[in-house]
Request: fold
Amino acid sequence: MNSEITLLVNTIQKELWLRWRLALILFVITAATFLTAAWVWPKIYTSSSVILVDQESILSPLMRGTAVETTVRDRSRIAQQTIFSQKAMDRVIASPSWAGADASNLSPKELDTLKNVIRGKTEVLNAGENLIEISFKDSDAEKAFRTAALLTDIFMQDSINAKQEESRSAYEFINEQVGIYQGKLRRAEEAIKEFRSKNVDATQGAKDNANARLVELKREFEGVELEISSEKSGILGNKKRLSGEVSPEANASFAKEGAIQARITELNTRLEDLRLNYKETYPDIVQIKGQVKFLQKALVAETLKRESATTKGTKNVPTGLVAQELKQGVLVSEAKIITLVGKKQQLQLLIDRERETLTDINAVEAEVAELNRDYTVNQNMYQSLLGQRENARVSMNIDIKNQGLTMKIQEPAILPVTPHGVRFAHIIMAGLIFSFVVPIGLVYVITLLDQKVRSELYLRDELRLPILASVYKIKNIAVKRQQVLKLASISFTILATWSVYGYVIVLRLQG
Amino acid sequence: MSTLEKAYIKAMNLEAKEVNNSERDSNIVERAEDYSESGRLHLDTPRPQAKEAHDIVTSRVGISQMNEVESYSSKTLMEKRLINPKMKDRQLLDRYRNIRTKLLSISKKENFITLVTSVVPDISSALVAGNIAATFALDEAKTSMLVEADINNPQLNNLFDMSEKKGLIEFLDSDTLDTNEVLLKTGIPRLRFIPSGLHRENSAEYFTSTKMAQFIKELVVRYPDRYPVINAPCVLNSADTRILIELCDKVVLVVPYGKCSDEEIMQAAIAIGDEKLAGAVLDGF
Reply:
């Protein structure tokens, strides 16, 4: 590594010595360029102010939970837009530091150029989380200071105005919303009212009445049906008696049979009870058994008697008064059935109507429930908006009176004393350094580009050429004289350049 | 004090004497050279009589005195960017000696022809060639010979102030010219130089001639203690160099700092071939 550096230094040294004229010309050109640049480079003064800004917008606490507010991400960008706006630029140009009273005489093109100049010299930065730095650069310190201060004022004023505007618009927005909800509420109320007036019967009592009435009607309906059925069977009985199919004896026989059956069943029940406690030989059991047996015999006898009468085919057709009575009975029953059928149809109609009424009442109830729900929602919204509107009104009033100011000048602009940025001294220093670096660099680059062999190591190791020796030319008087002359020229040029630098520095220091 | 250092100091003293008594020294050298030349040339002939030999020596001394070249002072050599034993920069001197040692060690022959070429056209090649030749000449037991074969850009001619002299091209072109007439003394003891000659086109035509091959062969055969060093144009651009590589024993590739890409270096190394490539000399790294 070290040998490489030594080789590099030696190569550069040799090349500089060989190409001394080129190196010297480059030295002079570079030095002169930097010197000229240093002389003409304008002094730049920067004046800046720092503004503390509250990040929170007035809308956020007001609208919290009600509406989602768009967040303000880049305050400095908004500040930039405010400061670089046409209005702000016009104000700056109209200030005495710039065109002043002549501003109105400027052509639109001149105005535009001037605005671009001002924009180019202005810088708006986010100095911290809530800090905005406004700085202005100019070759005139006074002008830089005044413009920076003016820009700060413009920004503050605009921001306050914007804030007032913001809180007012927030209030107006909420107020508008309140109006809208009020209208909605009113409409809901009216809708309910109108509906109610259209459906007067549609009350809770009406529904209960309808239900009770329906039950009553159904009951009545069933009674009529029963009555009709009873009359019909009465007619059938009478008719059978008239035709002789059914005699009164047979009827008595059936009745008697039934009575015997009932008695047997009763006795059997008693018998089972007794058997639980007593043996078969118990007198009561024996007695009951006897009774049952007797009754069963009677039952059989009765059945046989009735059947024998039937098989004989003896029809006992009633005549006379009895028949007259029976026919009368049939006619009365038929007339009663006709009346009952009419009543039944009437009742069916009533039931249907009552059912319809009930369906109507249910539909009305659902509609009313919906209207009520709308009304409740609107009412809640309206209530909460009313509260928020009052908050917004207070916030607006605070802003109007500048009581809620969330912006203040943390550090005001001051008159700059020392120039900022690249200065005369910097360029002079750079000139002194670069006037050496450029020729060395360029000569080295030429050396790299021309691809000529300059290293013994390369010849030996890369080209594998046997090396007899490395020699050099003897320096005779002519060569020595030439070298002295070369050295003198170089020294003289460098010293002369430095003298010019010194002279320029002195001139500058003296103003 | 180590033996090496003692030998070094002795060599230094001898060099100093050489500079002070350049005339005498050069005579001695000339005699030695002439003796060796005549010995080699007339190996199978009977030895001449002492008088004859004395006459020959006297005459050669006379010629050598006529062609007397003043030795370069250390300052002059430094100005020409050539190494010399008196220079303060011992590091560079040692590096060139190191090159010489390595060349001697890798060469299997007694003496050998070294070709110096560069990856890209650069003065480095001429200076390295000159300095390698000068390093061989440092050794009193050896002499060296430098040949400028870069016809189009003969840097060495200028270095030794011999731009207007006849040289290699004239020798190859002429049937009458002798080697000795183009083999010129330099201000450096024991170092002879053959300039490229007057500028001609199509040098490749000359280098492919049989005379060139013979001349190269003669360089090593005729003077066994002499180490010829040829400076050739850059290997990538020149056909001359490719021909010369075939004729030489070892090739030294000069890599100037920051002037060639790795691809160019690899191409040059491939053009030379592993067998002939003695190694790279890095200039200015």
In short: Confidence is low (pLDDT under 50) at residues 66-73 of chain A. The interface with chain B takes residues 14-15, 18, 447, 450-456, 458-459, 462-463, 465-474, 476-477 of chain A (CB under 8 Å). The longest strand of chain A covers residues 45-53.
